[in-house]
Specification:
Layout lengths: L1 H10 L14 H7 L10 H5 L7 H10 L6 H14 L5 H13 L8 H14 L2 H16 L6 H8 L1 H7 L2 H16 L4 H14 L5 H18 L3 H14 L5 H14 L5 H9 L1
Helix pairs in contact: 5-7, 6-7, 9-12, 11-13, 12-14, 13-14, 14-16
Protein name: SCY1-like protein 2
InterPro entries: ARM-like, ARM-type_fold, CIK-Related_Protein
């Protein structure tokens, strides 16, 4: 009797009973629930429903086959992912996509393509979610020095890292990365770092600023053979003076300016600017 009643209910199933199911697939679900087996669509027919051509669904399907792809295919996919992420529910991003992305961190060649997506997800996470789900995965990546694009990506997102990372981890992981950038053999990296430091200097604790950051900026200025790095070092110092106490400037910065060996016009302008 109960079985017959349920069959009767299925045969009279209306759209109002399927309000929790996306409208585009309700009719197909009704067919799946049909009491006549021949009427029910098979798995192949279901995959051809336009609903499953949705960019989010296609993206998730691609992630399921990621292990079959070569580095070139993966890199192209990851490049386009930032346009797709905003269209997906946060729960799907955090539970399905984030683990797939961070699993690629073991492949150094893929990190420059994966990292921007992970940091994009981090921007939408709460501080607690970031600390629990993302920061542990970033730890080893902070220490990677090759490919060089990894450091560039992190430097461009320093405001995010310094805002959401706990103070201890900033001191142990994030700031050492900035220090390595200032000491890097690449002039491009040094210049970018010097240009970006003033944008997040207000987020750096004073002891780290005074005892670790400033000495490295001074060394970069004195030891470089690049005029651009020397000038940018002086400009950088000029922009962060407001975060230094007066006596430190008098005792440390002013004597340092007198040690600068070159006297090119741009350098002199930088010295006078300080």
């Amino acid at each position: 009797k109960s079985f017959s009643r349920q069959l009767d209910q299925l045969s009279r199933l209306g759209s109002s009973s399927l309000t929790n199911i996306p409208e585009e697939v309700r009719e197909h679900v009704k067919l799946l629930l049909n009491v006549t087996p021949a009427v029910r669509p098979d798995a192949d027919q279901m995959t051809k429903i336009p609903f499953f051509d949705d960019v989010g669904a296609v993206t998730l399907q691609y992630f399921d086959t990621l292990f079959q792809r070569d580095n070139l295919q993966k890199s192209q996919f990851f490049k386009g992912l930032p346009k797709v992420l905003p269209k997906l529910p946060k729960r799907v991003i955090v539970q399905r996509i984030l683990p797939c992305l961070t699993s690629e961190f073991v492949n150094p060649d893929m990190v420059p393509f994966v990292l921007p997506n992970v940091l994009l997800i981090a921007e939408e996470c709460t501080k607690e979610e970031y600390v629990k789900l993302i920061l542990p995965e970033l730890g080893p990546v902070f220490k990677q020095q090759e490919p060089i694009q990894i450091l560039l990506i992190f430097l461009q997102k320093m405001d995010l890292l310094l805002t959401k990372t706990p103070p201890d981890e900033i001191k142990n992981s994030v700031l050492p990365m900035v220090y390595r950038a200032l000491e890097a053999p690449s002039i491009q990296i040094q210049e970018l770092c010097l240009n970006i430091i003033p944008t997040f200097a207000n987020l750096i604790d004073y002891p780290s600023m005074k005892n670790a950051l400033i000495p490295r900026i001074k060394n970069a200025c004195l030891q470089t053979s690049s005029l651009a790095v020397r000038v940018n070092s002086l400009v950088c110092l000029g922009k962060i003076l407001e975060y230094l106490d007066k006596w430190f400037v008098l005792d440390d910065i002013l004597p340092f300016l007198q040690q600068i060996p070159s006297k090119e016009p741009a350098v002199l302008m930088g010295i006078l600017g300080n």
